[in-house]
Amino acid sequence: MAHCNTILSQILKFVSRHEFESLANRHHAGRSFRTATRWSQFVTMAMAQLSGRISLRDIVGNVSAQAHRLYHLGSAKLTRSNLARMNENKPYSLYEALFGKLLHHCQYLAPGHQFRFKNILYSLDASTIDLSLSVFPWADFRSTKGAIKLHVGLNHNGYLPEFAVITDGKTSDIEVGRTLAFPTGSIVAMDRGYIDYAWFNQLTNNGVYFVTRLKSNACYKVIERHPIQKNKGVVSDHTIMFTGNDALKKCPIPVRRIVYRDQETGKQYTFLTNHFKLAARTIADVYKARWQVELFFKWIKQNLKIKSFVGTSKNAVMTQIWIALCVYLLIAFIKFQSKIQISMQQIVRLLQLNLFEKRDLMALLRGDPPTNRHEYDNQPTLF
Question: How far from the centroid of its chain's Cα atoms is residue 298's Cα?
């Protein structure tokens, strides 16, 4: 009879321990603990994310209840003080680097987006995570409120957060957007919070396409009118040049203005893009697909722990968020590899209920009934 490790053990096998230790050595600071390691920290915090633990006491209690299984995870049992000190002092940059490694290997398995064009499609947005200013005084946002902001460029191939940046709450969306190096030929859908004519010109020069909403007070002149298909909701499709002194100086290139009326709601939208080959209706659909990044923020806030924190320092908060993003990628990798038609949320629920069950992970996701005989194959590592 083949032996089957716990579900959590099979999940962690997707991460190469050798590569993790290499990253840990590279992102080390301060003295080492006698028994506690960065791997033990990662295992403990990842377990907390997957099982929905809400406090240090809760996390350590859950780990203590499974202490006899930690050996098989390569982890040691951490005390509450040790875990708190590691979260407080050990650089979160380790998990930012781990996120990059996991992302790189998820991309190989990610399915394509829903559109017929071959360009990579991104949705760009940011979400504010509220914090209590009295508990997190370093997260100054407003006079009585603290916050940090998670900026994400979501790749629609597998809905992976290919660009992820965490800043203080005061950092504007466009300030981060300018720093992102989108690949040539990609399309970036964004809301009006990212309108910056100089940046639009820079994106165009770099061969990157953008789709956004046009400001209602924008000054422009129409230089060409394109034929439209009214039965698809397109009201107008024009090539325009900005005429305002500042806009013309920063963006002296022709752009495309599309007016679209939603046939279900009757609401009218005015889009701005530098892509002249896609159909006007496709441009409208690209902007509509931008909603996927909003769904990403909603999913990660509902299913992982990035709204309540088990530490109060900036390093502890950043550690928790980056580990949550790493866990998201592990779940996405499992979904891609299994090729099963269940949602990420269904996968999380299954994992929460079966973390320490000794069952085959893929059989669990397929919904196979429990059996006394398991076929367990060594799972491949992500990197």
Answer: 11
pLDDT in tens, 164-208: 999 999 999 999 999 999 999 999 999 999 999 999 999 999 999
Q: Of the candidates 183, 97, 118, 160, which has an alpha carbon nearest to the alpha carbon of residue 336?
A: 160
Taking CA atoms, 29 is separated from 88, 200, 318, 324, in Å, by: 12, 40, 16, 22
Longest dimension (CA), the chain: 77
- Label residues 343-358 b or e (16+ Cβ within 10 Å = b): ebeebbebbeebbeeb
Taking only the tens place, the pLDDT of each residue in 278-323 is: 999 999 999 999 999 999 999 999 999 998 999 999 999 999 999 9
Tokens of 272: 């701005």
184 CB contacts (<8 Å, ≥6 apart)?
206, 207, 208
Question: DSSP readout, 287-335?
Answer: HHHTHHHHHHHHHHHHHSSSSS-S--SHHHHHHHHHHHHHHHHHHHHHH
Residue 20, token pair as written in the block: 């993790």
pTM of the model: 0.92
Number of Cβ within a 10 Å radius of residue 96: 20
In degrees and rounded to multiples of 5, residue 238 shows phi and psi of: -125, 150
Compute, in degrees rounded to 10, the torsion defined by CA atoms 160, 162, 167, 172: -100
What 8-state DSSP symbol labels residue 115? S
Length of the chain: 383
Instruction: In whole angstroms, give the CA distance from residue 347 to residue 39.
Output: 24
Distance in angstroms (rounded) separating the CA atoms of residues 95 and 320 = 9
230 exposure class (CB count in 10 Å sphere: 0-12, 13-18, 19+): exposed
Quick: pLDDT tens for 113-122: 999 999 999 9
Nearest one of 357, 383, 305, 240 to 4, comparing CA atoms: 357
Q: What's the CA gap between 341 and 45, in Å, rounded?
A: 28
CA atoms of 181 and 35, how far apart (whole Å): 41
pLDDT band of residue 330 (cuts 50, 70, 90) is very high
Strand partners, 237: 258
Give dist(CA 151, CA 285) in Å, integer: 23
